[in-house]
Amino acid sequence: MPRQRIEDYQLKAINATLSHVWNNNEYYRSKLEGAGFTEPKIESLEQLASVPLLKKDVIRGDKQKLLCVDPKEIGQVHLTSGTSGKPIYTAYTLADQYVYDLLPKYLEIFKETDADVAAIALPYEFALPGLGFQRLFQFAFGTAVLSLGKGGYMAPVDKSLELMKEYQATVLATTPSYAALLVEESEKYGIKIGEDIRLKKILLTGEGCSSTFRDRLEKWWGCEVSFFYGSTECGVVGVECSKHKGYHVMEGHVKVEIIDTVSEKPLPYGQTGEIIVTTLLREGMPMVRYRTGDIGYLQKARCVCGITMDVLHLRGRMENMLRLNGEDYSPFLLEHFLMEIPDVGMWYHFKLNQGVLKIEAEPFRTKLSDEQLAEKIRKHMADRLSIDCQVEIRHDIPRTFGKATRVFN
Ligand SMILES: [Zn+2]
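Above: inputs. Below: predicted complex with zinc ion.
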């Protein structure tokens, strides 16, 4: 679509959403009235900045506050994992699940068809990712689905790999750490990646990672690996095209803004700040100017793939930023430099102690002694970042079926 048509649609969809929340939700209405609105309407996309922001702590642990439909209209409830506090609840109506989630289809980004078999190794219990991807592949593309989950009772790792082999999975949707775990474990169970399992594509979501971590996964799995950025609260937000130059914002589903975290003023293209998401046309629990707690910047759509949707560059979660020598560093940037060292494995920790960075890393198919490897990491990080860090080589960094915790602030 030409840019102007996308923006016309977004303005209409935002106004429809504002009108829906104004008419059906006390919290949203009182916030809008408090900000001086006498009707639920903005005249331009720039005016969206006058709509109050929605903070996470307002809705944490509350099932009702944002509900915009009669409870009997709810088709499904999803919860966040609650790793950083009480969970956030989102209620989807059937229309949210089967119309909103599936349309528009973004055919240039998702090439999957009924000839594909998608293995979904994402949490299914109450979380959005497993069920969301299941619906997307099954109902939008007619793709067969293997609902693996993440190492649960019915599909532990060995059985998951076995099923992917038996049913000749062509697509895998999972987290970066679980993609690493599956490929590591495949060797233990004698399953040959590239022969027994031949994937065309992996979609990564749930955790961010650096492009070097991705490169390693691409090598191990022998296929393209793309990022998918979304959340339980907002659903899909951005997806990478085959050029891998950032996330195309799913502008049919969401309006994304970037704000300065202190002044809360919108930032122009190219400037880094907090990512704000407004869901478009959702019924059950629309998110209006939701503060995601994620950091990134927007770029005007100029991608060689031809898609005209803006591009989002993600820098990680605010709470995971590492403050070193008076500057905030994205853990993805540090991971990027760490993963440049081929002797380092894919499991590591960054620990910040009184401003000093300690890296715990595992050796990977290396002839170096632990001492030599530690020295190599120290030197490499100092060269790349001008930062002195402590390094401990460990052989026992725990694997996880949940979200991988790599940063300890
Ligand atoms: Zn593109």
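Residues 3-24 form the longest helix (22 residues).
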